[in-house]
Amino acid sequence: MDRKMETTDNTLAAECRTGNAMKFRVLVERYKKPAYFFALGMVGNPDDAYDLSQEAFVKAYRSLDRFDENLSFKSWLFTILSNLCKNALRSASVRKKYIASDKTLEEAAAPSETNPEVSYIAKETKKMVWDALAELDNEAKEIIILKHFQDMSYQEIAEVLDIPLGSVMSRLHYARQKLKKRLEGMQR
Fold first, then answer.
1. Is residue 181 within 8 Å of 133, Cβ to Cβ?
2. In whole angstroms, what separates CA 169 from the centre of its chain?
3. I need a surface site. Which of 79, 131, 177, 179 has the fewest CB within 10 A?
């Protein structure tokens, strides 16, 4: 996302802090789908993903007074959501293997082709990627989702994960290698 959008997000957050709670609705509308799909990728259960993404918005709203306007709102929100997902994964209630339903896969990235064969191949490829992602450790899964599914910049990822920029590049490189290895193993 460009700097203009981040400034707008931060402006909306600042207006919320001064009592205009309706501005937070704009932020929720803007990020509810990306937040849900990030959580879905992390915890693998649509219901848990929905609950976690909603909880992240509630926590963000309640913590607006602690929001550092030098960071982007998006990065701050995803930091909160990332921590919630990690905590949920530690609990027994969501420690199950991720198996994407057909509906979830269609929601995540519906093919734009109308050709049934192309659509089927795209759907199967997406399922294979989701299944391979589910087998990765949380650190690798998280950084791939932030970069490739949330389209975050390296700087935004560094802010979300609270790590140096060089570590983002390194972790992403190794996470991609792990994902590639899993995908190659699935094709055999």
1. no
2. 18
3. 177
Any idea what the CATH number is for the domain that residue 88 is in?
Answer: 1.10.1740.10
Please report which helix (H) or strand (E) contains residue 54, including its range: helix 46-62
Distance CA 80, CA 11 (A): 19
3-state SS, one letter per residue, for 106-141? HHHCCCCCCCHHHHHHHHHHHHHHHHHHHHCCHHHH
Domain with 14, as residue range(s), is 1-96
Q: How far apart are CA 131 and CA 172, in angstroms?
A: 18
Q: How far apart are CA 104 and CA 70, in angstroms?
A: 35
Q: For the segment 109-137, what is each residue's pLDDT rounded down to a tens digit? A: 444 556 777 777 777 777 888 888 888 89
Evaluate whether residue 29 is within a structural domain: yes
CA distance 124 to 178: 20
Residue 70 lies in a domain: yes
The pLDDT of residue 143 is above 70: yes
- Please state, rounded to an integer, the average pLDDT across all residues of the chain: 83
Is residue 101 classed as helix, strand or coil in its secondary structure?
A: coil
Domain count, the chain: 1
Q: Is residue 82 part of a domain?
A: yes
DSSP string, 148-166: IIS---HHHHHHHHT--HH
**Which pTM was predicted?**
0.76
**Cα 8 to the center of its chain, rounded Å:** 21
